[in-house]
Amino acid sequence: MITRKQVVEKAREYLETPFQHQGRLKGRACDCVGIPLQVADELGIVDRNGVPMKSSDNANYSSQPLNRFIHEECQRRLIEKPVSEMQDGDVLTLRVPSRMENIKVTAPCHVAIVTTVMGVRGMLHAYAGNRKVVEHVMDAKWQRRIEGCFSFPNIED
């Protein structure tokens, strides 16, 4: 059985990996979707349907996803739970601003793994704004962006 601690430890192995759209290589290139998929692949996690989660899954999406595809994939493959019950190792879907034909839209097209940083709730994600995988305190701005919270199936506390 995989623990939440193992999920966070594995995710932290990706810290400082340069951001690259659809990147899936620890230390070389990673995007936000890549982190939970690679963590699941490396730990042998299967989705709620018993299908192995692979780092190569969902490798065909635009650099600015504008719809709910990522959120809906989390709903399909992971176990949805109330945001108020988030724990380390959970996956968050977050609404981030994007541009479509010069129109600013906000969609749940970003993901992060929940962590604890300096004793408070944190998040680890590949963020284009930082150009790398980062971990930081989940401030009010990020908390407001949360669309959903999901656990990997069969994870122990």
Helix count, per DSSP?
Answer: 4
The biggest beta sheet reads: 6 strands, antiparallel
How much helix, percentage-wise, in residues? 10-25%
Q: Rg from C-alpha positions?
A: 14 Å
User: Number of folding domains?
Assistant: 1
Classify the beta-strand content into a percent band.
35-45%
Spell out the CATH superfamily: endopeptidase domain like (from Nostoc punctiforme)
Distance between the termini: 10 Å
Structural class: alpha+beta
Number of strands: 10
The helix/strand series, from N terminus to C terminus, equals EHEEHHEEEEEHEE
Weakly predicted, low-confidence segments: none
Shape: globular
The level-1 CATH class = Alpha Beta
Oligomeric state of shown chains:
single chain
Overall pLDDT score:
90
Strand order of the largest sheet: 4-9-5-6-7-8
